[in-house]
Design goal:
Mean pLDDT: 92
Bound molecules: protoporphyrin IX containing FE
CATH architecture: Orthogonal Bundle
GO molecular function, one term: iron ion binding
Binding site for heme: 385
Structural class: alpha+beta
Helix content: 40-55%
Low-confidence stretches: 1-12
Organism: Actinophytocola xinjiangensis
Keywords: Heme, Iron, Metal-binding, Monooxygenase, Oxidoreductase
Largest sheet: 5 strands, mixed
Protein name: Cytochrome P450
Strand order of the largest sheet: 1-2-8-5-3
Length: 441
């Protein structure tokens, strides 16, 4: 059971309690075994604790909604996401939303927002459906397969066609191949992204070469798109950005936005879906209700299932903000430079926050919205995921298509354990399932 009292060891000016093992060990656990590490520390030290990681960085974890709200609503000139996301700089570029704060961040958000509002999302529906139908129809029948890989293929296709607006051809084929390689990064390689000097050595050298090759293709696509005369009729995110009357977006900004949407939007959505297929296969009753919802177009129940899975199996375990000056958080006076990290996985499983948190109940999300900062798989505040609506819409389309067509089965009743891939926690065996044509009931 989670501790709900602020730890009495807290004193003004000191960091919350936490393990005293070496920074290297803590960094290793923080990188490769995140969910177990956080759960253990929360049990041992309470709802607010400190992890000490390499580079002299102190990460203060907060797990109570009221403390998480302090972080998400804190002044944006004090709570910087860019510093906490720095590891992504060499890949996403300095114009990435993930690496901006303050006015430049607001300006970039304003550039991108029109491509993610309700009207824009409705416009992406047909293309998402077309891609989901083609992918789901190609799944093998009656044999075990890791569905995560197939979901990654469809979410990548959605990014390439709906976000980048690419059409079939040699450039798309090459980009598809390169991006699959760039995204498939283990936790230790990911850690190496923080040290540009490593780019001289394999596997970082190979990673950089793939990224540069993808950049060349993207810049060629951007140049062609700028010359196109039918942009207003195209509707994809890249064309919308180029066609915008509001602001001029440079080629480098476009490149950084596209790569950011790709790294933030492709693997995350496929991982969330992989966990949902895994849970549907393990829970025949929920699956039957979800099939019924898919048949009757009840998107709210389908998304209720998906959101409940995202509560119990969050794709990203935490977000971070680095303090630009001393600040009070969770009753502690924290020094400038501290990273404060709302721990998504822990607030989602806190019995003081969610009734019977270990029980799987999609109804929690049907006909009601969770209270502020209690369900945060997409983070929060000014940096809240810009693609949350996009991802949920895409997920509803893929789930609806699969559930109308198939019964989904597991081969082993035991749940797959989570394992780390860059910032995400994926099902270790790729979410092994078997699908068979739906039997009438
Ligand atoms: C299940 C799918 C997804 C999950 C779990 C997820 C999760 C997150 C999280 C936790 C953040 C950080 C928020 C914060 O710091 O408070 C984030 C930011 C972001 N996400 Fe997502 N995301 C998903 C899908 C997408 C999609 C589909 C896109 C775009 C196509 C996208 C684009 C972004 C961008 C651009 C940011 C940076 C926002 C900013 O800093 O202003 N994400 N996402």
């Amino acid at each position: 059971m989670a501790t709900l009292d602020v730890n009495p060891a807290a004193t003004a000016g000191s960091l919350p309690p936490g393990p005293t093992t070496s920074r290297v060990v803590q960094t290793f656990l923080y990188t490769v075994a995140r969910s177990t590490f956080y759960a253990n520390l929360q049990r041992r030290y309470g709802d607010t604790f400190t992890m000490r990681i390499t580079g002299g960085r102190n990460v203060v974890a907060v797990t109570r909604p009221e403390h998480i709200r302090e972080v998400f609503t804190g002044p944006s000139d004090v709570f910087h996401a860019s510093d906490a996301n720095k590891i992504l700089l060499s890949v996403a570029g300095e114009n990435s939303l993930l690496l901006l704060d303050g006015d430049p961040h607001l300006r970039a958000r304003k550039q991108l927002m029109p491509a993610f509002n309700g009207a824009a999302l409705r416009g992406y529906g047909d293309m998402m459906t077309e891609l989901a139908v083609a992918e789901v129809a190609s799944w093998p029948i009656g044999t075990t397969f890791p569905v995560h890989r197939r979901l990654a293929a469809v979410t990548l296709e959605v990014i390439l066609k709906v976000v980048f607006g690419m059409v079939d051809g040699a450039r798309l084929t090459q980009l598809r191949d390169l991006i699959a390689k760039i995204s498939n990064v283990g936790p230790l390689t990911f850690l190496g992204w923080a040290y540009p000097n490593l780019e001289r050595y394999w596997p970082w050298k190979r990673n950089r070469e793939n990224l540069l090759a993808a950049d060349r293709l993207l810049y060629a696509e951007i140049a062609e798109r700028r010359a196109a005369t039918d942009l207003s009729g195209r509707g994809d995110v890249l064309s919308r950005l180029i066609d915008s009357d509001e602001t001029e977006v440079s080629d480098v900004e476009l490149r950084d936005h596209m790569i950011t949407l790709l790294i933030a939007g492709h693997d995350t959505t496929s991982t969330a879906l992989a966990w949902t297929f895994h849970e549907l296969a393990r829970r025949p009753d929920v699956q039957r209700a979800a099939q019924h919802a898919a048949d009757s177009g009840d998107e709210e129940y389908l998304l209720g299932v998906h959101k409940e899975v995202m509560r119990l199996r969050p794709v990203v375990q935490n977000v971070g903000r680095r303090l630009q000056r001393d600040a009070d958080v969770a009753g502690y006076q924290l020094p400038a430079g501290t990273i404060v990290a709302p721990i998504i996985s822990e607030v989602h499983r806190n019995p003081g926050v969610h009734d019977d948190p270990e029980e799987f109940r999609p109804e929690r999300f049907v006909g009601r919205n969770p209270a502020a900062s209690t369900w945060i798989p997409f983070g929060g505040g000014v940096h809240r995921c810009i693609g949350a609506g996009f991802s949920l819409q895409e997920s509803a389309v893929v789930l609806g298509e699969a559930l109308r067509r198939y019964d989904i089965h597991v081969t082993r009743p035991a749940p797959e354990r989570p394992t780390s891939r860059h910032v995400t926690q994926i099902p270790a065996k790729g979410s092994l399932i078997v699908v068979t044509p739906r039997r009438p009931r």
